[in-house]
Amino acid sequence: MVQKAKILLVDDRPENLLALEAILSALDQTLVRASSGEEALKALLTDDFAVILLDVQMPGMDGFETAAHIKRRERTRDIPIIFLTAINHGPHHTFRGYAAGAVDYISKPFDPWVLRAKVSVFVELYTKNCQLREQAALLRLQLEGGGSNGDGSKEAAGLLAELSARLAAVEEQAEALTKQLGEDSADAAVVATAAHLERKLTGLRRALDALEPGAGGTAAVLPAQG
Fold first, then answer.
1. What region holds the Response regulatory domain (predicted)?
2. pLDDT of residue 145
3. In a 3-state reduction of DSSP, which class is residue 11?
4. Per DSSP, what are the bridge partners of residue 51?
5. What is the pLDDT of residues 152-190, one digit of tens each?
6. How far are the Cα atoms of 3, 40, 143, 163, 207 from residue 156, in angstroms, in the given order?
7. SS3 helix, strand, coil % of the chain, rounded to 5?
8. Are 190 and 181 in contact (CB under 8 A)?
9. How far is residue 96 from each of residues 36, 37, 104, measured CA to CA in Å?
10. Which residues contact 17 (CB under 8 A, 6 or more apart)?
11. Which range has the worst mean pLDDT, 31-45, 53-67, 132-146, 178-192?
12. Beta strand pairing status for 104-107 and 30-34?
C-alpha cells in the first residue's frame, strides 16, 4: 500500500485554507495546515512534504521570508514551493518569487483545475521518488548480503533493471510535461518547473547508475525527495 504524500498549505486566513482543502481533496493525499510562516517551519522539522503551497502576504513572516528559511535548510531545500498571491505588482514581484525558490507563482483567484493539476505533478514525482528509494535500499541489501549467492545476484540484477525501467518511465513523463508546458506558456514558471524536475531526475539516475555492477556504488544513496 502506497503511503499518501503530505501537502503543506500555508495561509493566515482560515477561509483560504478551507478553499485549498476543498480543491485538493480530490487528490486523496494528506493535507497539512499552517496559519503562519513560523508554523510552517515547525511542521517541516518533523514531516516530509511533496509540495508546499505558500501564501505571499502574511503578517509577521511573509511568504518570501518563509521560503528563504526553507531553502536554507538542508532537509527542506528541495521541496517544491508554489506561491499563491492576491496581488500583482508586475514582473518584478513575480521574479522575486522565483528568486526565493518557488517552482511556480499563481495569482488569486486561480483556476482550481489548474492548481490541482500542478500540485498532482509534484505529488506524483514525490511518490515515484519514494518508491525508487525504497527499492534501491532493498537492492543494496541484496547486493551486500547475496554477493556470493548466484540466485541473490540474479534477483538483485532483475530488481536493478526494474528500477531503471521505472525511472526511465518517469523521465519520459517529465520530458512530455516540459514540452507541454513550453507549448502552453511562456512565463518563468516553465523554466523553474522544468529545471526542478530535471535536477531531481538527474540525481536519481546518477544514484541508480552507481548501483550497477562494477560501479563501486553498493553504498550509494538515492537523493531525498523534492
1. 6-123
2. 64
3. coil
4. 7
5. 566 666 767 777 777 777 777 667 666 665 555 545 555
6. 24, 40, 6, 10, 16
7. 60, 10, 30
8. yes
9. 20, 17, 11
10. 9, 11, 33, 35
11. 178-192
12. unpaired
Report angle CA 169, 83, 20 to the nearest 5 degrees: 85
Q: Report the run of H or E that residue 142 belongs to, with start and end.
A: helix 112-145
**51 three-class SS:** strand
Question: Strand pairing of 30-34 and 51-55?
Answer: unpaired
**Look-up of cell digits 526494474:** 162
CB 52 within 8 A of CB 10: yes
Q: Which three cell numbers stand for residue 20?
A: 485549498
Report if pTM > 0.85: no
Report d(CA 7, CA 4) in Å as an integer.
10
Contacts of 34 (CB under 8 A, 6+ apart): 8, 9, 10, 40, 42, 43
Closest CA to 53 of 20, 101, 97: 20
- The HSE-up count of residue 99 (CA atoms within 13 Å, CB side) is 8
